[in-house]
Give the backbone structure.
Amino acid sequence: MSRFVNLEFGDESEDSFSAQQIKDEAFYSDQAQQAYERGAFEPALRYYSKVLEFNPQNVSAWTGQVRMLIEMREYKEARMWAEKALERFPTAPELLAAKAVALGRMGNLDEALAFSDASIEERGDTPYIWLARGDVLLARAENRADYCFDKAVMLAPRDWFILWLAGRIRRFYENFAAAARLLQSAIELNYSNFIVWLELGHCQRALGISGPARLSYARACELNPGCTEARVGLAQMDDLGLWRWLKALPKRFIAK
C-alpha cells in the first residue's frame, strides 16, 4: 500500500517511549528532528505524522514529511504530499521549496525552477530554501548552485546539520569532492555523530581514496556499532584492499 495513503496515521506499536512521558506536539517534533539528524528518515516521517495528529496547522511538520520522502527517494509521493500541503498553505516558502526539489529530481526542471523562484519570492530566506535552490540548479546542471550552498551555510554559521544536508545533496549529484569538503567541515563541528562520518566515507570511496574511506567507515562503526550501512561500507573497503593485494601478487613473484 502506498505510504502516501497512511502518512497521517501513527503506529503506536512502534512507539517505545515510557508511558510517563508527555507525548504531545513538541515531543514528536523533537523526536522527528532527532531521527532526521541520525539519518532515520522513515521513523522521522512517522514522527512528523504524529505531530499533525496534534496540530494539523503545523506547516513545519507538513514540510518535514515532504523532505523525508525526498530523502527516501520517494519523489512522486513527495510531490503529491507537497501538493496536498500547499492546498492548506499555498504560500509557505519551505513547502514550495520542497516541491521544487521533488520536481527537479523527477526531471521536471522548468516547473522545479518555477517553484524554487516562488519560494524565494515569498520572502523565503532560510537555509533550507537555499539548499533546495541549490538542489534544483544542480538538477539543471547550472553553476549558480555554488552560490546557493554558500548562502545556506552563511545563514546557519557553524551548523553541522546544514553542512551535512548540503553534502548529501552534493553527493546525490555526484559532486563528490565538493561534498567531501562540506562533510569535513561538518565533522569539525560535530566529531561524534556517526552519520557525518558515514556520508564522508561514501564520498571518499567514490573519489577512490580508499584509506581515508576505510577510516571514515571505521569511525562511523565505532560511534554506532549498529549501523549496518557503515559496517557494509567498511567490509567493502576491506574486500577492495584484499583484492588489490591479491592482484599484485603475480607482480611480486615476477619481481623476485
Observations:
- Confidence is low (pLDDT under 50) at residues 241-255.
- The radius of gyration is 20 Å.
- Residues 228-255 form the longest helix (28 residues).
